Amino acid sequence: METATHGRAAWALARYALLGLFSFSLTAIGPMAPALRSEFGLSYTLAGLHQTAFALGMVATGLFGGPLIERWGLARSMWGGMLVMLAGEAVLSLAPSVAFTLGGILVASLGATLSMSAVQASLAAEPAERRSRMILEGNMTASAVSMVVPLVLLAGTRLGLGWRIVGPVAALAFLAIAGLGLRHTPPDAAPRKPGPLAPGSVPDAGPARPRTAPRLGAAYARMWLALFLGVAVEWAIGFWAMSYILEKPGSGPAFASAAVAGLGLAAVLARFVASRLGHRLGEGRSLALSFALALAGFPLYWLAPSPLAAAAGLFVSGFGAANLYPLAFSLAVSRAPHALARASALVPVASGSAIGLAPFLLGRLSDAVGMKAALLSVPIGALLAFALLAYDRAALARERGRS
User: Fold this and answer.
1) Does the residue 201 lie in any domain?
2) CA angle, corner 24, sides to 20 and 25, nearest 5?
3) In angstroms, rounded to a whole number, what is the distance separating the alpha carbons of residues 355 and 69?
4) Is 92 a domain residue?
């Protein structure tokens, strides 16, 4: 009994760690941007295009990765996807030009997103009483790992490797995770094959694609859009944080790195609080409160003349923004229990689109009007999300009134 319990705990921890490794690969791009701009002489727009390359891989995997997961199964998709990610990281670390950095990031994204999609599908399939908590804990692990990124980059500078240290660190981390989790991966961690359907019966919501795909519905679509807006707000705040704080008088690489690490700490704390107290408020109210906190910290981050005050505002905004994705994801899949696999598979399309568009468009705006003015897109996105959540609450009330 104790061995079985240990195995389940190791399996859960391995999935959390794989989400953390995905987060490491994704989060590293923003703090790398100043070094990439310096080495290759890039504009804000071209530096932001690296995040778009990762997002493109996320969207492509979200749209077309389902058949691969069905063929390979969840376990092979989790571990095999990470091997593809490491191949992309190797190309990135050895890149002689921007074409190779973009290509390496794209390949890394394709593999990492395949792995992340399989992990999240397995978490979404957990019993309802554990699903939200496990999703939050997995994302809390991802946030903790993101705190390490600026410290890794500082170590790379000290060792003479610079931003190219990211690939070797990712490879070492994967070896450690595989050593922990491979032997505890359950043999049935693969999608079920569709069985024969009785005449007139409805296909179940297993990970395999049904013969007639059920509609996801308007409630799911609203939460999908809320997830898109939440990720856009989070990445508009976080991606350029290193660059924005470096522009403050009296700032420097060490302080900016510490501020970005603080952003990761804020995310860890926020997701820990949500995993323990979120059930008291409910996911809908918790999501609205998270948007409010992200909005509350933004004026201090945006207007503060000193780096220290800006870092404090960044911490508050990051505390709120950290739960936008996991809460919206849990709400979205709960709105489509009849089509869990399709609902989970479309999540990377929303998050990937937001991650690709927000930093890139903010970079374009920064080249045109300066970063300070461009960052006004953050409160606009948060206010749009508030309007959407209010409409969703009213729509659900009307639907309950009819039934």
Assistant:
1) no
2) 120
3) 23
4) yes
Residue 70 lies in a domain: yes
Q: List Cβ neighbours of 26 (8 Å cut-off, separation of 6 or more).
A: 54, 109, 112, 355
Which amino acid, 403?
A: S
Report CA 237 to chain centroid distance, whole Å. 14
Say yes or no to pLDDT of 348 above 90. no
Residue 198 inside a domain? The answer is no
3-state secondary structure of 191: coil
Contact status, residue 294 vs residue 320, Cβ threshold 8 Å: yes
Q: Give per-residue pLDDT as tens, 14-62.
A: 889 999 999 898 888 878 888 888 888 888 778 878 888 888 888 888 7
Containing 163, the helix (H) or strand (E) segment is none
Total domains in the fold of the chain: 1
Alpha helices, H only, 160-282: 166-181, 218-238, 241-246, 253-281
| CATH number where 276 lies | 1.20.1250.20
As a dihedral over the C-alpha atoms of residue 339, residue 340, residue 345, residue 349, rounded to 10 degrees, the angle is 80
DSSP letters for 356-373 = HHHHHHHHHHHHHH-HHH
* CA neighbor of 44 nearest in space, from 374, 376, 362, 357: 362
Among candidates 31, 35, 189, 214, which has minimal Cα distance to 122?
189
Which among 298, 301, 294 is positioned nearest to 244, based on CA atoms?
301
Neighbours of 39 (CB within 10 A): 15
Total residue length of the chain: 403
